[in-house]
Amino acid sequence: MQENIDTLVDWKQFYSQYLPGLKTKGDELHGLCPFHNEKNPSFGIKIKTGQYKCLSCGANGNAWTFLQEYKGVTKEQATKTIFDFAGIKPPEKSQAKKKPAFTVEEYASAKHLDLAKLQEYGIKNISSKMSIPYMDEKGNLVATRYRHSLSGAIKFSWQKGSKVHPYGLWQLQKAREKGFIVVVEGESDCHTLWEYGVPALGAPGADTFQSRWSVYLKGLNVYLYKEPDKGGEAFLKKICVGLLESHFSGQVYSFSLQGYKDPSALHMESADSFLEKWQAAMNMANKLDIRIVSCLAEKVIADQPFAPIKPDKWRYSESGVFGIDAEGRDSKICPIPVILTRRLLDIDTGTEKLELAFRRHGKWEFIKAEKSTLYQKSKIPELANVGLPVSSENAKEMVSYLFDMESANIDFLPTSQSVSHMGWISKEQFLPGHAGDIVLDMDAKRAMSSLVNGFSQAGSFNEWKNCMEYVIKNPIAQMMLASSFASPLLYIIGHRNFIVHVWGASKGGKTAAMKAALSVWGNPERIMVSFNTTLVGLERTCEFLAHLPLGVDERQLAGDKQEFLDKLVYAVSAGQGKVRGDKRGGLQAKAFWNLVVLTTGEESLAGDTSHSGVRTRALELYGIPLPDEREAQNVHRVTDQSYGYAGQLFIKRVLEKLRENKEFFHEEYATVYKQLQERFQGIIQPHISAIAISCVAYYWARQWVWEIPEAQAREEMVRMAVSTVELLSTAQEADYTDRAWDFTTAWIASNDERFSSSCHNEQYGHFDAVKQQYWIVPAIFKKVLAEAGYSVSRVLREFHERGFIEAQSAGSGKMTFNVMKRWKNNAVRMIVINKPNDTQQLTIIS
C-alpha cells in the first residue's frame, strides 16, 4: 500500500495545512523552511512525491520525516496521520517493519573512529538516531543535527528550531595555533581529521556555506577539500561566493586526494600512511582566486577547459556559436564551439594576448592571438590558417562575440604571464624546466615550433651520461660539450657571446660531437640548424634561444660567401638584431640574446679577407673531434634516443647556488680567468675569457650531472684548459700561415711576367732558375701583404720558420729577411722565396 501512496495523497494540500504561504513553481512548492529561521524562501517540496529539501540548512526527507521532525511524533504516528489524510486503512502492526536504531557505536565502527573521542564531542544515541551537537566557539550548544543511517534516502535531519552553523567551531583555537584550517563537507571528515591533529571545520552540506561564516576563518589560510563529483564543484563555488561577499582577504587553496573520495575513505583504507598521503595532497593544493571561482558559469560542454560567463545575446554549445536576437531567436555564426580561456601578459614587452579554444574532431584546439587580430573583422580571418572556421562572411559576428565574451569575463578570465623565448626569464626562472606557471607563447614564434618541440626529455639519463664519457676523452668534443653548459652562464656572469668553430676533414665526428653538446638541452636533431639560412633567420633563432646554445652544422653549405659568414659572426656575437619594420606598421621590438654558438664544417670560419674581429669572436679548433668512427656512430645513436636531462639538472643547481650566493659564479669565473691569463699570456683576452667560462661550466657540470668528486672535476678542468689552448694556438698559427702562404703563391703566379727580365712594366723581382728561387723587392712584397691585412713581420718570421724564405744574420744575434743579392749588376736586398713543394706549385718562369 505504501509504495502507491503518491497516487492517493494530494501532497500540495497535505503540506499546505502545516505551512501556509507555499507557492507553486512548476512541479514544486516553495516557501520558508520550518526547520530554521530564514527570511528568503529556500524550502522546496516535490508535488508528485512529497519529498522536500532546504537549500540553506540541508534538511531533507519525505512526509514521514517531515511529521517526525516538525510535529515530534514517531514514525508509526506519522504513518497514521498520512493514511488518515488519504482515507486509507493503516497496515497491521505485525506487518510493519520497525526501522533499526542507528547508534554512535555503529558509526564509530563503520568509520574506524575512536568511540571515546566521539562521546567527548557530545555525540550520543537518542531514540532511533545519533545526535550530533553543534557548539559555538565557547562550547555552547547552538544546534543539533541527527544522523539516521550511514546511507539511504534519509541520512540527516535537524532538530526543530535549530539554526544552521558550521561544525567544529569549538575547535577553532587549534586551527589558529597552526595558522590554517581545512574546510570539509559534513561531520565525519572532521572527526577523521581531528584524530590526526588536522584542524578542520565542517559545512553541513555542499551548498550550505553562508557568507557570515567567513568571520570564523579570518587570519587563517583556508584549504577547501573538493570531493571528486558535482557536489564537490558546488561546495567549492558556494564557499568562494560566501568568502567573496564577506570581502575575505586570506589565502584560499583547493585540493583533493588522488584515488579517495574524502579523508574518511583514506583513513579507512590506509590509516598507516594517512598523514603522509594527506600532507602530500595538501602540498599540491592549488591557490584559488575566489573572484574567478565564485563567478564561473557551469560547463556547457563536459570537457571544456574553462567555463566563461556567457555574454548577453550569445550562446555556445557543441553545435557551435549562436547569436540571439531581441525576440529570443538564435542563428548560428560558427559551426563549432569557441570560447576564451585565458589572458596572456608578455613579461618582456608588456603586450597582452587572449587564448581562445575551439573544439574540432572531438578535441579542443588552442590559439593565442593579439587583440588587434581578434577584434578587427579584416584581420580575424587570418586565424583560419590555424583551424578556426572564420571568414569574411562571419568575421563581424565573431569579433562581436569574442569582444562581448571578454567584457563579460573581464574580471574573471584567468591570467598567465608569458614569454616568447627560451632561457632566462629572471635570475630565478628558466626555460625549459624551471619557469613555474609562466607560459611559453609559441604562437609568437610559430616558425620556431620545431625548435620548441626539440627541448624535451627522452630515453635513459644514465645511458646518456655513460656515452658522454667517451666524448669527454676527446679535447675538441669535450670543449664543445663544456661550451654548451656554459651558454646559460653568460647572462649570469655578464659575458659576451662567442663562437666555437670546429673544422677539419670530413668523417671526423664533427656532427656527432655537435649532437652530443646539444643533447644536454633536448633532441639535437630538432634544435640543430645549418648554414643554409639567412641572417634574419639566424637572428630570429638566436632571439628565441636567448641563452641556450645555438648549433650550426656544415659550414661548407655557405660555400665561398665569406662576406656572409663574416656578417653572420658579427650578427650573432653582437647579441641583438637590427630594428626592422612590422608588417602591421611601426617597428618590431628589438631582439636580444646572450649565448654560445657552436659551428662545424670542413673549412675555417674566417677567410683571407676577414677582419680581425671575426677571429677574436670565434675559437677556431682544427682537428678531429671523435676519431673512433664506431664510437662516433654510438654517439649518434644514443643522442637520438636519450637527451634533455642534463641541462635541466644543471640549471636546477645553478638556481640553488644563486639563492645561496649571488656572486658565486662571478667569483669562480674570475679565479679561473685570472689563472689562465697568467699562464697563457700569448692568447688574446676574448679567447682566454671564452675558455675560462667553458672550463668552469664543465667543472660544475661534472660534479652536478655526473656526480664525480670535486678534486677529479678540477683536475679534468685544468687538462681541458691546457688542451684547448694548445688546439687554439696550433689552429690559429697553422691557419694564419697557411692562408698567408696561399695568398703569396697565388700573387706570384698571377704576376709571373713581372719576375721576367723581358717585363715592360714595373718589375717585382727576379726568378733564379738555377736555385729555383723568387727574389722579390721588399717594399713591394711588404706593401702587398699589408694591403691584404696580414702582419708583415709575423708572416716573414713564420715563412722563415717553415723554410719558405731565406734569412741572414743582422748582427747581435738578430736575423733579417732582406737577403743581399746581385741583380742587374747591383748589390740589392731582396726577399728570397724558395720554390714551393709539389702541393703548393707556382708558375715557373723560364
Q: Can you walk through the features of this model?
A:
Helices cover 38% and strands 19% of the residues. It has six domains: 2-86, Zinc finger, CHC2-typedomain (DNA Primase, Chain A), CATH 3.90.580; 101-165, no CATH class; 166-295, Dna Topoisomerase Vi A Subunit, Chain: A, domain 2 (3-Layer(aba) Sandwich); 314-418, no CATH class; 452-579 and 589-729, Rossmann fold; 752-840, no CATH class. The chain contains 29 helices and 35 strands. It is of the alpha/beta class and 846 residues long. Strand 16 and strand 17 form a beta hairpin.
Quick rundown:
Helices cover 38% and strands 19% of the residues. It is an alpha/beta fold and 846 residues long.
Write the layout of secondary structure elements.
Layout: H1 11-16, E1 23-25, E2 28-31, E3 43-46, E4 52-54, E5 60-61, H2 63-71, H3 75-86, H4 104-111, H5 115-120, E6 124-126, E7 129-135, E8 141-147, E9 156-158, H6 172-178, E10 180-185, H7 187-195, E11 200-203, E12 221-225, H8 230-245, E13 252-255, H9 263-269, H10 274-283, E14 286-287, H11 290-295, E15 314-317, E16 320-324, E17 330-334, E18 338-346, E19 352-360, E20 363-370, H12 371-374, H13 395-408, E21 415-419, E22 423-426, E23 429-431, E24 439-440, H14 449-454, H15 461-472, H16 475-486, H17 489-493, E25 498-503, H18 510-518, H19 524-527, E26 528-530, H20 535-545, E27 550-553, H21 562-574, E28 596-601, H22 612-617, E29 618-622, H23 629-641, H24 645-660, H25 664-679, H26 685-704, H27 710-750, E30 765-768, E31 773-776, H28 778-787, H29 792-801, E32 808-811, E33 814-816, E34 819-823, E35 826-834
Parallel strand pairs: 10-11, 10-12, 12-13, 18-21, 21-24, 25-28, 25-29, 26-27, 27-28
Antiparallel strand pairs: 1-2, 2-3, 3-4, 4-5, 6-7, 7-8, 8-9, 13-14, 15-16, 16-17, 18-19, 19-20, 22-23, 30-31, 31-35, 32-33, 34-35
Helix pairs in contact: 2-3, 15-23, 16-18, 16-26, 16-27, 18-23, 20-21, 25-26, 26-27
